[in-house]
Structures are given as structure tokens and as C-alpha cells.
Amino acid sequence: MSKRCAWVTKEPLYIDYHDREWGVPVYDDRKLFEMLCLEGAQAGLSWWTILQKRENYRKAFDHFEAEKIVKYTDEKLQLLIEDKGIVRNKLKIKSVVTNAKAFLNIREQYGSFAQYIWGFVDHEPIINQWTSEKEVPAFNALSDQMSKQLKKAGFSFVGSTICYSYMQAVGMINDHTIECFCHPSHQRQESSTSL
């Protein structure tokens, strides 16, 4: 049986997220924006809570199309606050609108959000070599820098821990432990044995 990172539970949804998404580089602007908003929604909660509600979030927030979100009215925000399918936190909900505006500004400035956000890692994923989950940090100097820059650009719910978690989720940082079959070293071994 393939070994996975120690944090993965037996929940099929969690296994699927770990195996197919976590640590896989994302370059699609809409997906990068969605993940930033979901990581913000996670603040003070577990990722499992958000993952279970992800489909509800997509429906509630127009599949994270920033152009639609920036036009949300007070009535629409009120409906979101009453939506039991998402985390009903007024500040977190409003932050998605704030972040949509900042996201569109960045996209205009840099041509794409991916171009901007991947610049923090020089457009190359950082592959870590952790032997145990205990070694994986909650934040680092890079996430501190990203947090500062995003706040300056007008984003909210982008503290250093959220930024680090975001970088892991969108594959800017690969924090699969080395024994995990998703660690890039195993992919290299597989491709060399199949030659």
C-alpha cells in the first residue's frame, strides 16, 4: 500500500485531495483565487471543515469568478451570511469581495495573477525533503513576505500561516514528506523504472 503524509485521514475526500491536489502546481488564475479565498475561510478552523464545504462555496461565490464577486450588493452579502453551506462569518465573507478587487488589480498590473504569485518562488516549486510531519513549518520568511505584500495590495485574511498553507496547497511549496508516494522523488523513481 502506498504511504501517504501522516496528516491524511481515511476520509475518501481527504485522500483524494491529498493525492490529486495538495502540492500540485496551479497556474490557473481562477483556481489560484479560489484557493486563496478558501485558505482565508479556514482561519481558526480545520482544512477538513472547508474541504467538505468547497462545493457549496463554489456555488455561493459564482465559482470564484472575481468579475462577478466585485459586483456583489449588500443584499447578496446578506444571503451569503445566511447560507448554511459555508462558514457564516461576516468578515470572512466580505473579505472575498475585498480580495476579488485586489486580485483583479494585480491581474491588470501583471497580466495574470499566476505571474505575480509564482514570482514569490521565482516561478519554480520549492521541493522540501521533510522526513516527518513534525518538521513541516506553519510559516516561514517567504510566507511572511507574501503576507506583507498581499496586505499591501489590499487583500485580507492573508496572514503568514494562511500564506504558507496556500503555497503548499497550490504547489508553490511541496511539503509531502519524503516517504509519501506523492513526493516528487517517487515520481522520478517511477519514471526511471518504467523506461
From TrEMBL:
Highest taxon in the source lineage: Bacteria
Pfam families according to UniProt: Adenine_glyco
InterPro entries (alphabetical): Adenine_glyco, DNA-3mA_glycosylase, DNA_glycosylase, Tag
Entry-linked SUPFAM superfamilies: DNA-glycosylase (SSF48150)
UniProt protein name: DNA-3-methyladenine glycosylase
Organism listed in the record: Bacillus badius
